[in-house]
Amino acid sequence: MTKGTATPPLFELVGVRQAFPKPAGGELMVLDDVNMTVREGEIVGLLGRSGSGKSTTLRVVAGLIRPSSGIVRYQGELVRGPARGIAMVFQSFALFPWLTVLENVEAGLEALGVPSKEKRQRAEAAIELIGLDGFESAYPRELSGGMRQRVGFARALVVNPNLLLMDEPFSALDVLTAENLRTDLIELWSEGKLPIKSMILVTHGIEEAVLLCDRVLVFSTNPGRVRAEIPVPFKHPRNRLDPDFRKLVDDIYALMTQRSVLAAAPVSGQVGVLSGIADKLPQVSANLLAGLIETLAAAPYQGHVDLPVLSEDLQMEVDELFPIAEALHILRFADLAEGDIRLLPAAFAFAEADTDDRKALFGEHLLKYVPLVAHIRRVLEGRPRHRAPRLRFEPELEDQLSESYAEETLLAAISWGRYAVLYSYDDEAEMFSLEEEEVENEKAEQEGDGRRDAAE
Amino acid sequence: MHAHPYLALGRKAGGLLPNRWDLVAIPLVLGAVVLILLGLHQASVPLGEIEGTTVSLDPANLPDYALRTTLRMLAALAASLIFTFIYATLAAKSRYAEMILVPVLDVLQSVPVLGYISFTVVFFLSLFPGSVLGAELACIFAIFTSQAWNMAFSFYQSLRTVPRDLDEASRSFRFSAWQRFWRLEVPFAMPGLIWNMMMSMSGGWFFVVASEAITVGDKTITLPGIGAYVATAIEQRDLAAVGWAILAMTVVIIIYDQVLFRPLVAWSDKFRCDQTASQTKPESWVLNIFLRTRFLVRLTGSLAAGFQALSDLRLRLMPALPGLPSRLRLPSPDGLGWRIAMIAMDVIWYIFVAVGAAWVAWSVIDYVSASVSWNELEQVAILGLYTLIRVALLIAVATVIWVPLGVMIGLRPRLAERVQPLAQFLAAFPANLLFPVAVVGIVTFSLNPNIWLSPLMILGTQWYILFNVIAGATAFPNDLREAAVNFRISGWQWWRTVMLPGILPYYVTGAITASGGAWNASIVAEVVSWGDTKLSAAGIGAYIADNTASGDYPHIVLGIAVMSLYVILFNRLLWRPLYRYAERKMRLG
Lengths: 456, 589
Fold this sequence. Notes:
Chain A folds into 2 domains: about 250 residues, P-loop containing nucleotide triphosphate hydrolases (Rossmann fold, 3-Layer(aba) Sandwich), CATH 3.40.50; about 170 residues, no CATH class. Chain A is about 45% helix and about 20% strand. Chain A has a 6-stranded mixed sheet, sandwiched between helices. Chain A has a 4-stranded antiparallel sheet with strand order 2-1-4-5, with helices on one face. In chain A, a hairpin with a 2-residue loop joins strand 4 and strand 5. In chain A, helix 2 packs across helix 3 and helix 9 crosses helix 12. The radius of gyration of chain A is 26 Å and the shape is elongated. Chain B has 2 domains: about 230 residues, MetI-like (MetI-like fold, Orthogonal Bundle), CATH 1.10.3720; about 220 residues, MetI-like fold (Orthogonal Bundle), CATH 1.10.3720.10. Chain B is mainly α. Chain B contains 24 helices and 4 strands. In chain B, strands 1-2 form a two-stranded antiparallel sheet. A two-stranded antiparallel sheet of chain B has the order 3-4. Chain B starts with 8 loop residues before the first helix and ends with a helix. Helices cover about 75% and strands about 5% of the residues of chain B. The longest helix of chain B has about 35 residues. The chains are: A alpha/beta, B mainly alpha. The interface between A and B is medium-sized, with 35 and 27 residues.
């Protein structure tokens, strides 16, 4: 070790694990062996898709959650509970609606026991710094989203924290407001006007992370782990159009869209990507899938595109776009690798087809490649009255998935199966069933298969 | 069990009220109630006691009594529903009706139900001389008056807030008024209405128990039921029988909740228009079983088809009545002449209402002043003040106890899930069944009834404070809690700047219900007996109860009027402004 040991890092997580007990027994791992170091003078980004544990990590840092195991150290001392000198900015702003701007900003100082004269001075200084002067006596409801988040920043900065935590602070704002606030923040930071030593930013926007942070930790999902640590070598202010900037964004994109399930052996013809009924399905409506197939099949993509390019063209965040692409991959309408998406022949056939044929094709792929749908269908066919309650399948999923993933997976199976007219579902009775037309449909499908086979 | 947005709905309607109409509505309603009651009294024929209605204390009879009590409740609920559909629709559809009906409803809420039981009993008995039917109807009417008002409020408010897009869709489908009512308005109002029905049912148990055994002057009416069973047990000093009655009541409330209201609430959830996903979907095991049975689903399916045909009836009838819709439709409100006519109509209507109110007020003053001296009026006002002090103190005590506890419980979701149904059960449980137990205690330890009878008033209604506070704390936004922790806000500052403002609207909702209930309960709680022992506290509740027992009508009228005024003032000067303040403060965006 060199000089670095002389001044301990500002904040340190070593081998942090976080697990919650599952109602069905066993435990649900949210964070697995997360290591992170924050030094003075840097902005660290935690980047990942929803459910990757980045927000949980931030709450561990804030002392709002105590991890199941691992070491949390702040200025060399172990952290138990919320530490002094760590302030947080929330995605939802978390302003007290019954307090004015000034009172909201003063609340944190009051808790520190700051005398009232100093309290007023500091609060007014913070309000001025963040560009809110004139709004001191306004209530949060009178402010726009951007102004509210400025109050959030002022409230955090007024306590002169060493470490400022930001939990997706710009994601509830519109594009222009968010950009405006980001620029102001980074300007104040670069000019050394912020009374803080370091910042941690949680985000799911790759560009945002590259634009603001000095170092980005990329989280993987289920369980949350730090998959990669990427230094961002650019000086502020950064230019989004700079080729090096674009290159880094593309690289992180490729990294984030790799997933263990996709990284497995290349998929060959008849075998699906899913191995069992309890594999997680992304909850994406069939209409979205059809929409993406149509878009990709047409010019200018002609069936193949880089996801970052597509994300920009469609103005969709990676969090919104990826589940759709993933669903197409699972259903074998597309191949997804290295941040690229490439349509398979079946997808072109789908794009050409009319509604009924689309449903038939979709159903065929569902039964072939989604074991859960095939399983539900088999159970229904096996029962004399062709009915089965949701409870028949839920525990099977919950054995292997968390409660929310199991729910999402089942909902995806319900909505896809309904679209393909493979079965019906009564939400009130929570009951799957085959109606007569679906049984007939099945017959027609088999005949159709026969014809196709004959043609081949 | 979770907090429900409709919990506060009935009360919120208060915010819509045109305040200047209170000046007219208060004398009008109070006066009209008094005049009608006096009219009923004069019209009733003197009659002897009803023969052969004795209540046996054998616990084996309790299932039968419980069933009768429940049937009375359901009959009253049906009546309330019909009243709601007619009254609220009228108020929502006609501007002139609305001006007067809505404030009237608001005042009616404040008139103590138990106060005028004596009048209605005598009236209904005289309608059916010598038969039990009259007494049954009187009892049902008493329950009805305790249930109908908030249901009507809820329905009126729903009618006024039908979403614009649904309204436009139904008009583009050319629904007739009848179709629109059943296809759009009733379904839209359903979740709020069912929650208010549930609230009404909870309140109703108290009154059914109180009105099953009542003595007016020389007449004693006893209807077989749990209330009469308890009254008999009190007369015979049988504490074991009281215990049996409490047990039976507990079972009844649990059954009706599980078999009737849980399924209704879960079912009505599909009518909800606001698609907030955060709300957990209400569940009912009874409904789930029901929906999974094929036979019952088919049966109700055909019933529903019949109902649908009924709701479509007018579509076929309407064209058979040519010209009717166009005659009802008013000419377009563009021309100057039209506007002048409108203003003239308004003026005529205002004058009509004002004159009506003045006449009614004058008649009452005339009647009361003939038999009541100024001196007595002053006395009654002082008695009212005593009860006011009791109510205020009890609410304060209940607040100090239940607000911190409710917050503690509400912030622990698992605990809240278990405590919430219990609190709601306790709110539904008719506390008057427990009075004998308290009386035995007071007599045994020879305590001062002026102090120790008071807690009985709030025994049953304090739970409204508890479960509303729990609901508020459960609904408290998690990010605000996290922000408070992050900024190290704790202790008194936490209560003052974080939690108390957050739960204030919920607390006020609960406290309004609790204080209204306490006023009503004072009529049975300020005078209680155990066999021959009679305990009494000074207050307006005792005044009404004593005069009811001796059949002194002018003085009952005076008592009711004074108590109503106190309740109205209490609501207008304290709760209403507090609720508006809380709502304004809490609103974000």
